[in-house]
Design goal:
Length: about 375
């Protein structure tokens, strides 16, 4: 093996495809393994002559697919069973048939990505530089000439021996291929025109006929209107669609609250409000624990003193970071929720003297 590390290998040029084919066969028979052929068109039998082997790509694709399938399934299983279990109508948390579609999609996605990226990696792409580009005549590989390269990393490679062997194949010429570019050889000069073209294009794109036309900046004057004001005033008497007037909501319950209403209020509260305000109204619901703005506790004095109409108003119109629930909770249910919040508030501030005797004795037992 040659010790000259500045040499990539030897390149032989042939005029005919048949010569290349014969040379490749001869090189393989002579024991060379690191060889590569270049021709302007596919030459029948050349891959066999070079000893192409099956690639590992199918295996990589299989691994990609398995990773995608397991990852997709695990992601859903972890989300629905471990991290964020939600009981929906008593359905099982680990309902694997529901996970199949995404598992399938991710299998395809990861297998596809593995195929493309694996193909690029196995081919050693992208490869902006290759030592063979140092041989000017190598450009003919895509036009009219046929090349066979024997590489230095081949255990059988020896500069003089290998050259002698190549000469015996009657090539048109033989080149010694350096690893690094020869001064002034093919370099980044091919990239430069592309960069200049891109730069020119990006300058020009701003000047196209589609830009800067017919668009008015906020508060920019415009001659179309008699007062030259492009920002038009809101017509008189216009009512915003999402701000129904709050004055229509009375302070106190418009109907008698029964036990049934309270239970309905509890039901609606647990569905719509508990996710943020928590089941006890402390403001520590699941969404808040996941990072949503923490609402105030319902047990602070200000909200205990607020009339039920105030809560109905908040449900109807939203409040600060909390959005309106008017499209999900009807007016009567809003009052029932307000009544239930009253009950929650009472639960935290109840006067022990007013409890039934049985509860009072239970409390005494606990506190002893
Ligand atoms: C998505 C989370 C979320 C849900 C669901 C939610 N709220 Fe709120 N709520 C908040 C937040 C956050 C605040 C505090 C808003 C602020 O101060 O900007 C708040 C504030 C309030 C207030 C207090 C307003 C004040 O004066 O401080 C009341 C009353 C209230 N919510 C009632 C309800 C009711 C009733 C429901 C169910 C219909 C409900 N909220 C559902 C997040 C939520």
């Amino acid at each position: 093996m040659s010790s000259d590390r500045r040499i990539y290998g030897l390149l032989a040029e042939f005029d005919e495809a048949d010569q290349l084919l014969a040379a490749a066969r001869a090189a393989r028979e002579a024991g060379y393994t690191r060889l590569e052929a270049y021709s302007p068109f596919p030459v029948h039998g050349l891959t066999n002559a070079l000893g192409f082997h099956h690639t590992r790509l199918p295996f990589i694709v299989l691994i990609g697919g398995i990773v995608g399938a397991l990852g997709g399934f695990f992601m859903q299983w972890y989300a629905s069973v471990i991290d964020y279990p939600i009981n929906i109508g008593g359905r099982p948390l680990n309902s694997w048939p529901a996970f199949i579609i995404i598992t399938f999609e991710l299998t395809i996605l990861c297998a596809g990505l593995a195929a493309v990226l694996g193909m690029l990696a196995l081919n050693g792409l992208p490869q902006p530089y290759h030592p063979l580009f140092n041989i000017p005549r190598f450009e003919l590989a895509s036009l009219s000439s046929f090349f066979l390269s024997l590489q230095r990393r081949d255990p059988k490679f020896d500069l003089t021996e290998t050259r002698r062997f190549l000469e015996s194949l009657n090539p048109k010429s033989i080149y010694e291929v350096p690893v690094l570019p020869i001064q002034g050889g093919v370099s980044s000069s091919t990239l430069l025109p592309v960069l200049i073209l891109l730069a020119l294009c990006s300058i020009n794109c701003d000047e196209g006929p589609m830009t800067n036309k017919g668009r008015i900046k906020p508060h920019e004057p415009h001659p179309f209107f008699s007062d030259s004001n492009s920002a038009r005033p809101i017509p008189q008497g216009a009512v915003s669609r999402d701000q129904p007037s709050a004055s229509a909501i009375p302070d106190n319950f418009p109907f008698q609250i029964t036990r049934k209403d309270l239970l309905r209020g509890q039901d609606r509260y647990n569905i719509y409000c508990s996710v943020c305000h928590g089941y006890t109204g402390d403001g520590d619901g699941m969404i808040v624990r996941r990072g949503f703005t923490k609402p105030p506790s319902f047990h602070i004095d200000r909200l205990r003193a607020a009339p039920p109409g105030y809560i109905v108003n908040v449900i109807t119109n939203g409040f600060g970071a909390m959005y309106s629930y008017s499209d999900r909770v009807n007016m009567d249910d809003r009052w029932r929720i307000a009544a239930y919040i009253r009950a929650l508030q009472l639960s935290q501030h109840a006067d022990p003297q007013k409890l039934p005797a049985s509860d009072q004795s239970a409390i005494q037992k606990i506190s002893q």
